[in-house]
């Protein structure tokens, strides 16, 4: 019998050190906004406003905490010594780029936090979670331990949830989590098909690969995740991302495709073998027809898809079709805005478009879909999770007050060296783990 299930969205709360350091080669926005002054307070409030609007519409909305930054344990592991003030001033003086890397608030993009397989798809009928090693970028490779602790503090009941360690942190097993993973299904509680999109094969030099920008996800990593999660071939499809798209700035598949339920919304240049992907999905989807919404380059050139983040929208099931929650930038790019007007009138599965302002995150290449990790949960599983992280009116109010009390409204590269910042961050996070009932998850709390 199919259990009733929902898709919950767990958004990353933007951290107090949100800044623009240009850390992500291959991510156009990150590199174009390097050194501009960020506003962490506004960023966190924009993220909370998005969560609140979706919670108000009845979607189950959860919150994932930011990480401790700057991350002193990483600096110590790299040979910096002395007290904390001395470590910070030494790294600021000798290696400001390293200070920026260990200060990034990049854990906000929780589409990269983990890959999650719902219990309806897995061999042992538990929800499986694997934090992404994010080994392609140093600043992100230091996220997975704390991500794993946060996920265990939320999905703690072992009867329902199975946690795996991140894959080996080397490029051959580069894993970027749910940003390269889409689940298609009929009812959420029914078995679905998990589409794993990879950028490159690590152990096959002859296979196609991008030439300009790095492929962050390998086939080997995707296959390992599917094995760990106990997915059979019936439940998994592996597809290569078009290398030309990666070279055009599509550093994750969720910058060029998004799926939910039976609907796959994608750009014609998303996949290397488009028709094979559709055939593989159609063969495995049961009880429902795939509704493919294909956007051509004539309608939206790939450069416009990248600058607007059209495909980094959230695709959400609503009572009368699919709702596309787009970033405001989509209305600033003429081809995309025109396309969206025709989309809702086309009679297709996407029946509504709503605009969300997440500009602070967008300037680092993170749209609405980057900011959330989707977890399909049946009623028992939803009841079993830590309820303190579910966004209610009261939690929204509390977090808004918390952000206003602890966050600065300007963050430049120079500010990262301020020893006061580390104290501010820890004080804020200590309070946050109490609000969210997470216990001790940060290194400074251990
Ligand atoms: N597409 C998804 N799912 N996520 C977007 C992640 C953006 C992130 N940007 C950054 O890490 C930039 C940080 C800086 O430059 O300061 C990244 O490139 O990994």
From TrEMBL:
Q: Where is the signal peptide?
A: none
Binding residues for substrate: 21-30, 112, 139-140, 216, 254, 364
Its recorded reaction(s) are: N(2)-succinyl-L-arginine + 2 H2O + 2 H(+) = N(2)-succinyl-L-ornithine + 2 NH4(+) + CO2
The record's listing under Pfam families reads: AstB
Gene3D superfamilies, A to Z: Succinylarginine dihydrolase
Its EC number(s): 3.5.3.23
Q: Where are the transmembrane segments?
A: none
Molecular function terms from GO: N-succinylarginine dihydrolase activity
* Pathway in which the depicted protein is active: Amino-acid degradation; L-arginine degradation via AST pathway; L-glutamate and succinate from L-arginine: step 2/5
- UniProtKB keywords: Arginine metabolism, Hydrolase
Q: Where is the active site?
A: 176, 252, 370 (nucleophile)
Q: Which InterPro entries match?
A: AstB_sf (IPR037031), SuccinylArg_d-Hdrlase_AstB (IPR007079)
What binding partners and quaternary form does the record give?
Answer: Homodimer.
**Protein family according to the UniProt entry:** Belongs to the succinylarginine dihydrolase family.
Q: What does this protein do?
A: Catalyzes the hydrolysis of N(2)-succinylarginine into N(2)-succinylornithine, ammonia and CO(2).
PANTHER family cross-referenced by the UniProt entry: N-SUCCINYLARGININE DIHYDROLASE
Q: What is this protein called?
A: N-succinylarginine dihydrolase
Q: What is the species listed in this Swiss-Prot or TrEMBL entry?
A: Marinobacter daepoensis
């Amino acid at each position: 019998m199919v259990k009733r299930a929902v898709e919950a969205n767990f958004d990353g709360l933007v951290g107090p050190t949100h800044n623009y350091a240009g850390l992500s080669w291959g991510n156009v926005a990150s590199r174009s906004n390097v050194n501009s002054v960020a506003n962490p307070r506004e960023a966190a409030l924009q993220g909370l406003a998005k969560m609140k609007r979706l919670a108000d519409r009845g979607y189950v909305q959860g919150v994932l905490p930011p990480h401790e930054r700057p991350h002193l344990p990483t600096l110590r592991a790299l040979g910096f010594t002395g007290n904390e003030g001395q470590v910070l001033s030494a790294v600021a003086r000798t290696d400001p780029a390293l200070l920026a890397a260990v200060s990034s608030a990049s854990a906000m993009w929780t589409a990269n936090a983990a890959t999650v397989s719902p219990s309806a798809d897995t061999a042992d009928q538990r929800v499986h979670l694997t934090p992404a090693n994010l080994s392609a970028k140093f600043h992100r490779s230091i996220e997975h331990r704390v991500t794993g602790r946060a996920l265990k503090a939320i999905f703690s009941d072992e009867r329902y949830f199975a946690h795996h360690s991140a894959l080996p942190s080397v490029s051959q097993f580069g894993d970027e989590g749910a940003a390269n993973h889409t689940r298609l299904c009929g009812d959420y509680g029914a078995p679905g098909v998990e589409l794993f999109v990879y950028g490159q094969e690590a152990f096959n030099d002859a296979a196609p690969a991008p030439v300009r920008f790095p492929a962050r996800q390998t086939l080997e990593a995707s296959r390992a995740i599917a094995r760990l999660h106990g997915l059979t071939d019936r439940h998994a499809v592996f597809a290569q991302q078009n290398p030309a798209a990666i070279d055009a700035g599509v550093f994750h598949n969720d910058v060029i495709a998004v799926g939910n339920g039976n609907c796959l919304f994608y750009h014609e240049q998303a996949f290397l073998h488009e028709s094979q992907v559709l055939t593989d999905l159609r063969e495995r989807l049961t009880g429902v027809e795939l509704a493919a919404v294909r956007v051509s380059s004539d309608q939206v050139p790939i450069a416009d898809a990248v600058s607007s983040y059209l495909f980094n929208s959230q695709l959400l099931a609503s009572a009368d079709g699919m709702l596309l929650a787009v970033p405001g930038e989509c209305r600033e790019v003429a081809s995309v805005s025109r396309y969206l007007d025709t989309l809702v009138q086309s009679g297709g599965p996407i029946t509504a478009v709503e605009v969300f302002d997440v500009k602070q995150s967008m300037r680092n290449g993170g749209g609405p879909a980057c900011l959330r990790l989707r977890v399909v949960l049946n009623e028992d599983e939803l009841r079993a999770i830590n309820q303190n992280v579910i966004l209610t009116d009261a939690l929204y109010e509390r977090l808004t007050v918390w952000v206003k009390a602890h966050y600065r409204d300007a963050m430049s590269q120079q500010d990262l060296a301020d020893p006061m910042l580390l104290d501010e961050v820890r004080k804020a996070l200590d309070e946050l783990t109490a609000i969210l009932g997470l216990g001790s998850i940060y290194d400074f709390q251990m």
